Amino acid sequence: MRLSIILPTHNRLNSLQRVINGIQEQDYPADRFEVVVVSDGSTDGTNEYLDGLQTPYRLKAIFQVNRGVAVARNAGIECAEGEIVVFLDDDTVPAPEFLSEHDRMQARHGRDAVILGPMLAPPDFRMAPWVGWEQTRLQEQYDDMEAGRWQPTPRQFFTANASIERRHLLKAGGFDPAFRRAEDVELAYRLEEDGLRFVFHPPAAVYHYAERSFESWMAIPYAYGTNDVAFTFQKGRSWLLPTVFREYHSRHPLVKALTHLCLSREIPARASQAALRRLILLSDALGLARLSHLACGGLFNLRYYQGVADGLGGRRAFFASIQEATLS
């Protein structure tokens, strides 16, 4: 068995079916790969669907109580039989050449490479404006990497589209279940320390059918912020937060003004978030993408810095760290 696709899922039956259909269309021999689907406490008919699914490739279904995506992926890795693990999410539909391209690049770049593919906006799907903003930022990263302006790093290791030899995952100990967000980036830092290098390959593409409420989108940057504090102090990434604080000064003036006004101040924060949400929806409806994206960027960064501040102990600790980074 050459490849094992690890596919965690939780209560996204319709989306999962779309992904499975995409896997069925691969131009890769069915006897050379398997799919390990881990249902993480699904209650929407996913388990029954998987029980009755007939596929030309080997399909393994694992059912567990809801314990988070890190535990689900670890269960899939443990069960996998392929030499190379290929990660997908339950909302990323692979292009027909997806597996062939991952396999080809794994063979080309040697045994210590992590192959990263892009998540593209589907042409037949309209994203919420905040998700569209996120997709635009991703595309900017892809364009920069493809043009060679900078090389991929652990921060581009998204388990919606990546491949790596299984032995490296086992050696690293898999994903840390303590993290429910950015658990992939945390693992990537450890992989880098083990000598692995990251390679971006645009043809190994998936289409990202992302559906996210405004509230769930707002929770993402906050989790990233608190996790970056944990990565710094619990995981020994002493360089991480100083980098965050130095980069703060290059942020858009709106971001810095919003942060100074709202950080750890409940009433201004609530009012600003409500006003910016209305602005996002209105500007999107009017086709004013630049204005919508500016508002999304302001909110995303505010929530990220709030996560950092809460991880550090509050507003005073956050701005003291910003000042220290400036002086150094």
What descriptive keywords fit this protein?
328 residues; alpha/beta; Spore Coat Polysaccharide Biosynthesis Protein SpsA, Chain A; 2 domains; 7-stranded mixed beta sheet; 3-stranded mixed beta sheet; 53% helix; 15% strand; globular
Structure explained in plain terms:
With 328 residues, the chain is α/β, with parallel strands linked by helices. The protein folds into two domains: 3-208, Alpha-Beta Complex (Spore Coat Polysaccharide Biosynthesis Protein SpsA, Chain A), CATH 3.90.550.10; 214-327, no CATH class. It has 13 helices and ten strands. Strands 3-2-1-4-8-6-9 form a seven-stranded mixed beta sheet, sandwiched between helices. α2 links the parallel β2 and β3. α8 crosses α12 (289-312). The longest helix has 24 residues, at 289-312.
- What is the distance, rounded to the nearest whole angstrom, between the alpha carbons of the first and last residues? 52 Å
- Overall morphology: globular
Structural class: alpha/beta
Largest sheet: 7 strands, mixed
> CATH homologous superfamily of the largest domain?
Spore Coat Polysaccharide Biosynthesis Protein SpsA, Chain A
Whole-number tally of structural domains: 2
What gyration radius follows from the Cα positions, in whole Å?
20 Å
SS strand fraction: 5-15%
CATH topology of the largest domain: Spore Coat Polysaccharide Biosynthesis Protein SpsA, Chain A
Strand order of the largest sheet: 3-2-1-4-8-6-9
Number of strands: 10
The helix count comes to 13
**What CATH first level of the largest domain would be assigned?**
Alpha Beta
